[in-house]
Each structure stands twice: as C-alpha cells, then as structure tokens.
Design brief:
Elements lengths: L3 H12 L13 E7 L6 E7 L1 E3 L2 E5 L10 H8 L2 E6 L2 E9 L2 H14 L2 H7 L7 E5 L13 H36 L9 H32 L4 H24 L8 H30 L9
Antiparallel strand pairs: 1-2, 1-5, 3-4, 4-7, 5-6, 6-7
Length: 298
C-alpha cells in the first residue's frame, strides 16, 4: 500500500493530468501499477522517468538503498504492468536491461537526471534500468460488438505474443550459432527480454483458460447440451496446455533461463498444442457467440 505521501502524489497526478507540485514540480513522472509478487494485488508507485525514443526508462534506485524496490520485484514476478503518463494510459511488458545495454541506458538516464549517479554511488548493488515500451501507432481496431469478436481479439493477442517469443528465441539461438562459428563465447541464458515476454504470455493464457473453464464454458454448455463432447475436449486440452505452461513457468522461475534448449523444446510444444486448440475452439464455438453482445448487457 502506498505511503500517505505517495498516495498524495498519486492523487495529485491523476487530478492534474500528470502534473504535480511540491518536491516533484517540473519532474517527469509516471504512475507504474504492478502486481504484488506475494499478494497478487495491484500496487501503484509514482516514478521519475526518462524518455528514450519510443520507450520510457525507469530506474530501481530506491534512493540508493541496499535493496531493490518492491515494484522491481513485482515486475519480475508479473511482467505485465499498467502505466499512466499524463492523460495517457497503456499496458506494457516491463523488461530490465542487461549487461552493456543496461550501462548505455543508465548513462542516458544520468545525462538527463544526474541524481541517479549519486544513488548508484551510495550502494553496492547495480541499479536496474527498466524499459517500458510506448504503444505504437495503432491501426483502427475492428469493432468488438459480440463475444465472438472479443474471443477472437484475445486469441489474436495470444497468437501474436507466442509468435514473438518464438521469433526472439530463434534469433537468440542463431546468435549462439554465429558465436560458435566465430570461436567466441555464446551469450549466456536466454535474456530477460524473452523471459519477461514469455512469462507475461503464460500468465495471460492461464487467466484466459481459467475464465473459460469457470464461466464461459459452463454457461454455454447449459444452453447447448448437445455440445458437451466439444467442451469436454476443450477442457482436456486446457489441462494438457497447462502442463506445458507449468514446465515453461518452472524454467522462467529464476531471472536467468538456465536451460535454453529445454525452454526451446517446451515452447515448440506449446506452439503446436495451442495453435491446434485455438483453431478447434474457434471452429466449434465462435458461431454460437456471434449474437452474444459485448460488453455484456446488465
């Protein structure tokens, strides 16, 4: 829970489109809402940021304290975060920078906000630099007026995130092969970019399937009892996919993915099973949802 001072900053920020007074007058602030690593509850923190092209950089300075701030531990556990920036709000995936890239971005931050160098000098830990990608220009989205539209939207997002994780993983393995060919050490692990994106995908997939099993499928089965075998198959596929998801989650439990070859194999298994599952689900139940309004009517 935010301190009384933090809450006053949050309230002022939201009341004045991101502008605050007092010690933060003129500062570039954002509100970062993370999910508590231990509680699972949302936590909002006001943070300074530096804009770097189409991304925002925030630093886990904790005012130079010896430990990382709570919000940093939260985003390692739950990479999907909510950002409030002036009057703009968006969801993104928080990715801590690593190695030389972290050093380059930290230098970029210090050039604009020199106080962070003082915080770094006050502690032995390396201050993490977290990258928050800004949303790009969006093509006009198709209108979502039915539950079929909404389900299609969710499935499209899941497919896109999984494809991106696979592309980044294959790029990593291509780089490893190139390093071996050149006789240089390959990059260790898989990197936080892949970890954060895959973990966010796994958590969103689990939420989606839990909602289907707990709410959508029982309601639909009640109206269409003849399709019970379809829903039994979908639930069984959920259980099979959950087993792969658990294997991936175990590999992502640490900050570094220590078994890249196993991760790659589990990711391929996830792609095969989820692709077939989504196609079957869409073929069987989308027509039944075309006339169900979205958002639901009271």
């Amino acid at each position: 829970m935010p301190s009384a001072f933090q809450q006053s900053v949050i309230d002022e920020f939201r009341a004045n489109a991101g502008k605050v007074g007092g010690p933060f007058a003129g500062s570039d602030l954002l509100l970062l809402t993370t999910t508590g690593a231990r509680t699972g509850r949302p936590h909002t923190t006001p943070l300074g940021h530096v804009r770097d092209g189409e991304r925002l950089l925030v630093v886990g300075s904790n005012l130079g304290a010896p430990h990382h701030p709570d919000w940093y531990h939260n985003l390692l556990a739950y990479p999907s975060v909510h950002v409030e920036l002036g009057e703009q709000e968006f969801e993104t995936i928080a990715v801590p920078a690593e190695g030389s890239r972290r050093d380059e971005l930290f230098a970029r931050v210090v050039a604009e906000a020199p106080g962070y160098a003082e915080y770094q000098a006050a502690t032995d830990r390396t201050l993490p630099v977290v990258v928050l990608e800004l949303p790009g220009p969006r093509t006009p989205a198709s209108a979502v007026t039915s539950l079929a539209d909404k389900l299609t939207e969710v499935h499209t997002w899941l497919r896109g995130q999984l494809a991106q994780v696979r592309a980044e993983t294959e790029a990593h393995f291509a780089a490893r092969t190139a390093h071996r060919g050149a006789g240089t050490p390959p990059p260790p692990g898989l990197g936080l970019q892949i970890r954060q994106r895959c973990l966010a995908f796994c958590q969103a997939l689990e939420f989606h399937h839990t909602a289907e099993d707990g709410h959508m499928f029982p309601a639909m089965e009640g109206h269409h009892p003849r399709l019970r075998p379809v829903f039994e198959r979908l639930r069984e596929e959920h259980r099979s996919i959950a087993a792969v998801q658990s294997a991936l989650a175990a590999l992502l439990a640490g900050v570094a993915v220590a078994e890249p070859e196993r991760f790659r194999a589990e990711l391929a298994r996830m792609t095969e099973q989820l692709t077939a599952h989504l196609a079957y689900e869409e073929a069987e139940i989308l027509p039944l949802l075309a006339d169900v309004p979205w958002p639901p009517t009271p």
